[in-house]
Design goal:
Layout (H helix, E strand, L loop, with lengths): L1 E4 L7 E5 L2 E3 L2 E3 L5 H6 L8 E7 L5 E7 L7 E7 L1 E8 L10 E7 L5 E4 L3 E7 L4 E7 L8 E3 L20 H4 L11
Antiparallel strand pairs: 1-2, 2-10, 3-4, 5-12, 6-11, 6-13, 7-10, 7-12, 8-9, 8-11
């Protein structure tokens, strides 16, 4: 069974599956097309990726894939913890540039579904964090986009001091200079 928590965006889903425990350990479902459909969620993964972050304060994002193949992303932490952000990048939306973040961890077993049209940022908060990242569209390098996590018009509160970021993220354009479509 899926247990949902409210988010400021009806399109952003935050949830966990109830686990089943016995003397051998715990079984936790991370995806079920049947359960998703029953809850009105249209998501079928085409690609799964595991990110391993040896150090806390590692930042990925703000990332998204543009039209004609925008992606939905299902995020789950296998070990460690981090803060996951969904940023509305839909021009014309009443919530354009607004964002929501929450802690995802191996301990809380929460997952976040980031819908098409939203950017995604993740900041690890523990060493040796491992993230399972499932995507409903194949990655297309030509459509892959990044926006600066320091963009003042979005004003993310990512706390912390210095981060480990890729050159791509460090040099990503501000939203006003980015090609969203």
């Amino acid at each position: 069974m899926i247990v949902f928590e409210e988010t400021p965006f009806p399109e952003v889903k935050l949830f966990r599956f109830d686990g089943v425990a016995d003397n051998r350990g715990t079984k936790i479902r991370v995806y079920s097309e049947t359960e998703f459909s029953r809850c009105g969620i249209d998501f079928i993964p085409k690609e799964s990726v595991i990110y391993e972050m040896p150090k806390a304060e590692t930042v990925f994002g703000i990332h998204f894939q543009a039209e004609p193949k925008p992606q939905q992303k299902l995020i789950r932490i296998i070990s460690g913890s981090g803060i996951d952000y969904a940023i509305d990048l839909r021009r014309g939306s009443a919530t354009f540039k607004k964002w929501f973040c929450t802690e995802l961890s191996a301990a809380n077993k929460m997952q976040m579904l980031i819908p098409r049209g939203f950017g995604h940022l993740f900041r690890s908060t523990a060493d040796n964090t491992v993230m399972l990242f499932q995507i409903d569209q194949d990655f297309d390098n030509e459509l892959s986009r990044a926006i600066s996590y320091r963009d003042k018009s979005i004003a993310l509160d990512i706390c912390g001091g210095s981060f480990t970021v890729s050159p791509r993220d460090d040099e990503a354009p501000e939203l006003c200079d980015a090609v969203l479509g």
